[in-house]
Amino acid sequence: MTDFVLHPQLAADTAMVCDWPLSRVLLMNDMRFPWLILVPRRDGIAEIIDLEAADRNLLAGEIARASAILKRWTTSHNGCDKLNVGMIGNIVRQMHVHIIARRTTDAAWPFPVWGRGHPVRYPASERERAAAELASLCADQ
Amino acid sequence: MTDFVLHPQLAADTAMVCDWPLSRVLLMNDMRFPWLILVPRRDGIAEIIDLEAADRNLLAGEIARASAILKRWTTSHNGCDKLNVGMIGNIVRQMHVHIIARRTTDAAWPFPVWGRGHPVRYPASERERAAAELASLCADQ
């Protein structure tokens, strides 16, 4: 764990939410979609098969936890019709999991969000508020 | 488990490989990418948060197992530079997990495969051979 360093591209594209037992929880800086990223705090992991079985189970639980938090968070915004989960990593190899709350009216529906259009950055104050709201839900749940 | 019925769209797009403790393992009928689909054999599941914790752990293990099988299978074809895993379900709501072996020279790289180009179907004999090879790897591993 001590060797964990967040990839600079992930750091540039996100805001910190909190740390869970396995993963760092990040908010993707793209207002188009309510979008969390989990990064297992393990050194040198690119694929799910690089994780030990115990960490794999932790990750499955944290994906479910992040999914539940996004559903709860979006009830006070525009709601959520579907959750999308992806582990891609074709460009940034440090293992990271996308969890995205989708709406049938969103900018990419029904396609996955990756590689569709361009991110719309949060104004700094809104980004901080969103990250704080999510951190508060993470503490609850 | 007795109520499990595979969604007709998934049935139309895939070939049967085998059944694992939780999931049905299917080969996506698209020669562009070595591509497995896992469908948890549970009724009425759309999201990872709909699964019990024990099933979530089973699923995480089966995703890793499918990943290892695709890596092994592709060593005798063109190799594999990255694995992509996705749970999307925006169109077909029955929960299913995509596991795709990617190459830096493939038709969609570096983008995710979903919604890029059009499937290239296997000739029937090649589809059957590929499904049989994968079933044999599933029995080993």
Would you mind describing this structure in some detail?
Two copies of one chain form a homodimer. Chain A is of the alpha+beta class and 141 residues long. The first copy, chain A, has one domain: HIT-like (HIT family, subunit A, 2-Layer Sandwich), CATH 3.30.428. The longest helix of chain A has 23 residues. The model of chain A has no long low-confidence stretch (mean pLDDT 95). At the A-B interface, helix 2 and strand 4 of A face helix 2 and strand 4 of B.
Provide a quick synopsis of the model.
The first copy, chain A, has three helices and five strands; from the N terminus they run αβββαββα. The first copy, chain A, is of the alpha+beta class and 141 residues long. Chain A has a single domain, classed as 2-Layer Sandwich (HIT family, subunit A), CATH 3.30.428.
**How many strands of chain A?**
5
In oligomeric terms, what are we looking at?
Answer: homodimer
At the third CATH level, what is the topology name of chain A?
A: HIT family, subunit A
Main interface: chain pair and counts: A-B, 34 and 34 residues
CATH class of chain A: Alpha Beta
Number of helices of chain A: 3
CATH superfamily of chain A: HIT-like
What is the first-to-last residue Cα distance of chain A? 23 Å
Note the topology.
Two copies of one chain form a homodimer.
Chain A: H1 8-13, E1 14-19, E2 23-28, E3 35-40, H2 53-75, E4 82-87, E5 97-102, H3 124-140
Antiparallel strand pairs in A: 1-2, 2-3, 3-5, 4-5
Please give a handful of descriptors for the protein shown.
alpha+beta; 141 residues; HIT family, subunit A; 33% helix; 5 strands; homodimer; five-stranded antiparallel sheet
